[in-house]
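User: quick one, fold this
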Amino acid sequence: MKKKAGSKLQKTDVFVTEEEKIQSNKRRIDQIDFLVDNYKKNILARIDNEYDKNTTWSDRLADELSSFGGSWKFIICFTAFLFGWIIWNSLSFTKHFDEAPFILLNLMLSFISAFQAPVIMMTQNRQALRDKDEAIIDYAINYKAEQEIRSVKNHLHEIEEDLKEIKKLLR
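Assistant:
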């Protein structure tokens, strides 16, 4: 706590100074929150732009296929297709193009599995790289937040020491 040269410390000077410090800290915390949010949005936008710029049309196609192939919509549609195939080829009054044991259906399922698995793995690899970039950014933001918390904590300790001095002066 600073004393003015040639004058005694007054109660109102100390309380105004402490209140100003508290308001200043609140403004600083709001600024930090704004900067962190803004920084994170800008970085994520940059990562999205780099992703769009660096991925080929085949990568984007693989991403679209794997997002559809790993969805409930695909499971429901494919289940309906399989039941339709089996029912069509099992009824006696329809023309059968793949009779039981459904060899053509098995061939088609094997073909889909053989191509769907690598496409999904390619997409997962790209997503893992993107997640790694985002984790590094999150770490940097958390590190900065930790530094700010330490700063605020140190400032609170200073305020606590100032209050102890004020109590001593008031006695």
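User: anything notable?
Assistant: The longest helix spans residues 103-170.
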